[in-house]
């Protein structure tokens, strides 16, 4: 089964409501990152730490890809999964230990609040359909021999 057939199969198993909810996730990312990441990236000075500029550049790339996701929500679903995963990892590795040690700062609280907007994504992402599509057909390691 080729990639386009698998993608079409996944698209067919997802209800229009879920597809439109996914569009809402992408729209939230488009608007949110346009309001936060782009201004920070474009107005920051040269004294800004390198990692902050890098992080904002990645967020701006996610914002641009979210525009594509708005029009092709199922095909871009891996981006929503990425969004959930990186935020979940940050919460588990950074925020939870700070909470346990009593080191929650206002900046950490603000970040957790911003991350909370991604919680509905967990319920909107069509996990079962994506897993079924991922494991249904494996891509070959080598090109298939020419047909005779």
Helix content: over 70%
- Amino-to-carboxy terminus distance: 20 Å
What summary fits the major beta sheet?
Answer: none
How many β strands by DSSP? 0
Beta-strand percentage range: under 5%
Number of domains: 1
Q: Give me the secondary-structure category.
A: mainly alpha
The pLDDT mean sits at 89
Poorly predicted tracts of residues: 1-8
What's the topology here?
Elements: H1 3-13, H2 16-43, H3 50-71, H4 77-101, H5 106-115, H6 119-124, H7 127-136
Helix pairs in contact: 1-7, 2-3
Give structural notes:
The protein is mainly α. The chain has one domain. Helices cover 76% and strands 0% of the residues.
Descriptive tags:
disordered N terminus; 148 residues; 76% helix; mainly alpha; 0% strand; 7 helices
Concise account of the structure shown:
With 148 residues, this protein is an all-alpha fold.
